[in-house]
Write a structure and sequence with these properties.
515 residues; alpha/beta; Urease, subunit C, domain 1; TIM Barrel; Dna Ligase, domain 1; six-stranded parallel sheet; 14 helices; binds zinc ion; binds copper (II) ion
Length: 515
């Protein structure tokens, strides 16, 4: 084939994102698209990159982020992601989305993970979509609408209770509007105190907009510890009931916790369960170590009848807001930020409590509002979950923390370096698939996630022999090794010297929006 194009990456080891074995080849890019793949020795590129010894993969899709605000503040704000090879981020997770919500007081935690009230100024999803299209960014964004954001608005901030029918109707209308304006679905964070009193029925009623408009249900489940199995059942039931419509639904009223075992009867013709994604799947707390065997078996058995996937980050510690009432002596805690005591960020809570001459709980209360890392998982479970064929890699990085969890800067290279090369948990092809082709298929991203002619030229060139994370709990913002170059929509966003400053990122509108 003789042709001219903008860019040819030659002699790369192509890992195409489908999970298929690697092959040697050239990839041609013209405009924002991949033009050809194979032996392109007769073709000429305006620019050519010799990639001998390097692997070329689809740009990584970060399946779980809290980058709602970071994607609005310019290419430098995504250095943590682009330096890992990421070209697309999924925002609005755990029930927490920047839009649609205007705040005049500090948002209740965990909504404040995204910032104080000065950041909550976007009154509709259309405005958020417009801002994403206008502001320069170097990653593509798929955005979800968060239940907590809807609750804070509909319940006028009085959220530590179940919503009433009027409030539920308001949330449902707001979600429907957001989906129509480009939101890819609905997320919840039922684990968190301000949402925990939302009943399963509340979530199903709000989520009805997913059936009428099209979208995914994604959740930080009510319980990831002792009641993790009940939470999985609740999540899958929400997916089924949201797809069923109110007239066909179970008549029995059920409330949230512990009442989700009762699966209702057959679905009527035309009912189609809404796709569900379990966020950062884990089995939390020492007494539940090893239980990923049970959770994965349950997900597989329920998943025979309805679409379900999950994301996972490659670390045995989680991170979120500081929750003094949930501290346990057997779970070490590292402080990630504190409004009244910013100088304590990065320190162990026990050390601070000792210095202050008080209990851990009292010290945690004194730090509020604050964030923390919790060392609450079993490494063997993390590996089981990551290795499962339904998993996708998502960082769950929290971009505005003073001393963040290292997953923000290290997730993708950690999977490729530590878990593929050092541990041998799965093949490089499988790892790439969980970061690209699988993720694009689960979210329904058109033209992304695989190296194929006609697809968008989202690409990462890396060295499989040296790729590695350097971010640690002590030094969480060190950039990774071995990521050579990154392109998004055909434009280079990272070269060996660092960020290029190019901002080709796009807003990806709800791919499931019903016509
Ligand atoms: Zn979460
Ligand atoms: Cu999250």
């Amino acid at each position: 084939m003789a042709f001219r194009c903008d860019l040819i990456i030659r002699d790369a080891t192509v890992i195409d994102g489908t999970g298929a074995p690697r092959f040697k080849g050239d990839v041609a890019v013209n405009g924002d698209r991949i033009m050809a793949v194979g032996d392109l020795s007769a073709a000429a590129g305006q620019r050519e990159v010799i990639a001998t010894g390097l692997a070329l993969a689809p740009g990584f899709i970060d399946a779980h982020t809290h980058d709602d605000r970071a994607v609005l503040c310019g290419p430098a704000c995504q250095h943590c992601k682009v330096s890992q090879g990421v070209t697309t981020v999924v925002v609005g997770n755990c029930g927490v989305s920047l839009a649609p919500l205007r705040m005049s007081r500090r948002p209740p935690p965990p909504l404040d993970l995204l910032g104080d009230e000065s950041w909550f100024t976007i009154g509709s999803f259309a405005e958020y979509a417009e801002a994403l299209e206008k502001r320069p960014t170097n990653v593509n964004t798929l955005a979800f609408c968060g239940h907590m954001s809807l609750r804070v608005e509909a319940m006028a901030g009085d959220v530590y209770r179940a919503a009433n029918d009027r409030e539920i109707a308001a949330m449902q209308a707001r979600l429907a509007e957001a989906l129509a304006q480009g939101a890819a679905g609905f997320t919840t964070g039922l684990y968190y105190a301000p949402n925990a009193q939302a009943t399963t029925d509340e979530v199903i009623a709000v989520g009805e907009a997913l059936r009428t408009h099209g979208g995914i249900y994604m959740t930080h489940m009510r319980d990831e510890a002792d009641e993790v199995l009940a939470s999985i059942r609740e999540t899958l039931r929400i997916g089924r009931e949201c797809g069923r419509g109110s007239t066909n639904r179970d008549s029995g009223r059920e409330s949230g916790r512990g009442s989700t075992n009762r699966d209702s009867g057959r679905e009527s013709v035309g009912d189609k369960p809404v796709e569900v994604i379990i966020s950062h799947h884990k089995c939390s707390m020492p007494e539940n170590f090893g239980r990923a065997r049970e959770t994965l078996a349950l997900i597989d058995s329920l998943g025979q009848d309805q679409p379900v996937a999950f994301d996972v980050y490659p670390y045995p510690a989680g991170s979120t807001v500081m929750m003094p009432e949930r501290l346990r002596q057997d779970v070490p805690v590292q402080i990630t930020w504190s409004v009244p005591h910013p100088e304590q960020a990065g320190r162990d809570l026990d050390d601070v409590a000792r210095e202050w001459g008080m209990t851990r709980k009292a010290a945690a209360e004194r730090l509020l509002p604050a964030g923390a890392i919790y060392f609450q998982m079993d490494e063997a479970d993390v590996r089981r979950i990551m290795a499962h064929p339904r998993s996708m890699i998502g960082s769950d990085g929290i971009p505005h923390d003073a001393v963040p969890h290292p997953r923000l800067w290290g997730t993708f290279p950690r999977v490729l370096g530590h878990y593929v090369r050092e541990v041998g948990l799965f093949s490089l092809e499988t790892a790439i698939h969980k970061m690209t082709g699988r993720t694009a298929a689960v979210f329904g991203l058109p033209g992304r996630g695989t190296i194929r002619p006609g697809n968008f030229a989202d690409l990462v060139l890396f060295d499989p022999a040296t790729v590695a994370d350097r971010a640690t709990y002590a030094n969480p913002t060190l950039t990774s090794l071995g990521i050579h170059s990154v392109w998004a929509n055909g434009e280079q966003t990272l070269d060996p010297a660092g960020l290029t400053g190019a901002a080709p990122g796009r807003f990806i509108r709800n791919p499931r929006l019903a016509a």
